[in-house]
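Why do we care about 3D structure at all? Because function follows from shape, and shape follows, mostly, from sequence. That is the central idea of this module. The next example makes it concrete: a single protein chain, its amino acid sequence, and then its structure expressed as tokens.
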Amino acid sequence: MSETSVAEVGVDTRPWWYGTFGYQVYLRSFADSNGDGIGDLAGIRGRLDYLVDLCVDFVWITPFYPSPMADWGYDVADYCEVDPRFGTLDDFEALVAAAHRRGLRIIIDLVPNHSSDAHPWFADALTGPDSEHRDYYIWADPGPDGGPPNNWVGYFGGPAWTLDPASGQYYMHLFLPEQPDLNWRNPKVLEEFDRILRFWLDRGVDGFRIDVAGALVKDDLLRSNPQVGPWDPAAGRFEQWLAFEHLHDVFQPESHEVFRRWRAICDEYGAYLLGETYHREPQGLADLVPGDGMHGGFWFEPMHIAWDVDELRRALVGPVELLGERLLWASGSHDHERSPSRFGGGDEGRGRALALNVLFACLPGVPILYQGEELGLVDGRVPPESMLDPVDNGRDGCRTPMPWEPGPGGGFTTGEAWLHSDPRSECETALAQVGDPDSWHSRYTDLLTVRRALPDLFDEPVVWTDGDHGPVISYRRGPVGVAANTSFDRHQVEVPAGSSVVYATPGVEFAGAGQLVLTAHDAVIWAAPS
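And the structure:
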């Protein structure tokens, strides 16, 4: 059938992820099936019905590959196996099959910027400059002073170079020394990852989230970055990173060649290729996701902003026109403070986080919930002596185990959880919230259900209707309107005559024909008559 005849019969050729809502599973902390205190693949399989009932469309799972766990699985020692702590390849295939039977799709993490120093490639590279896999990594002779080859710093702090005493050369690592960066200028590395992608696609995965997507290719001359402030190796990692303008270690245009190559492979399978595209300016994100490489990229600004209407409006409006359906929206992840904590804590923070997700829900792109967000979870409290995160600012609070039910282990495990934290209250558990119409879980389930039932908005532009000022943020897409009150005060919102409210947080009031009143941090979605 020709392209013309396909269009004539109205066949929808748009990708499956348009109009979907995703859910991130932080594997170690989601569900433990065998009592060893570590979440696993069988644990996810046992909770798939929970995810179906929540009305999510796909699940993104953090790394499950064999790893020494220097960075909790983001240091991969074998890209085509499952770490025994998480199960087996058979467990993975059983999970994918069970998800597909329920209409859920599975996205997995791919970690291509670096491997573990325990990977056989790096073990071989350490045997000497003439080894088969030496050029799989980035090596350089010392600088003129005998120190590192240039002034690059690691994202976790400290120099981005570690000396190999045996050869006298340094190897480069954007993160921990246990995470040596791969050399994406070596064609053999590209060929290895072609095989890795196909290995998992042949096992039914529906896509990949590309870790550190902005940093694969490095400057071929290894030039130093311009220094824009004092660098103190004892300072926090963000202060160290921001002491330089990162012209040569990240965001090199050659990375797009890799993504185009992967896009062609993923398109063969109808798979979704999305990136951890850490750029906090809309144009920078658009440059990372130009449309012919990765299908989409995460917009990280909503994970960093305070609850301020100007910051919120800037974070929402800026990227829409540039990226449209290539956006992925999220208010939190396993690397960031949970949004209810960031937005004030308690029910105030929970209400604000929900309002933000309502605003995400009808914008172009794909929203993704971080596990427990649907329960209104704030960061868990990890005692100082129990902290495990290797990064100085600590990400343990957002990674504490999922509270499924009250009692020891919280329904997460029958043993001792890998990350010790204070017990959650009963009202924070899934058991208490599922089925309670007044719970945070029900509010999120209703939101996802409504989003799935709304008319197709793909061809409808976003029209911001708030005048770019005031405490209420609002927009319209075709027949659908969305508004959220960012303040503590009551505010009135006008809706077209005959509109029906399809979703509303509990404080929304009717004030006569075409008038709604939004109390503190309320949000609403309405549909105008066709």
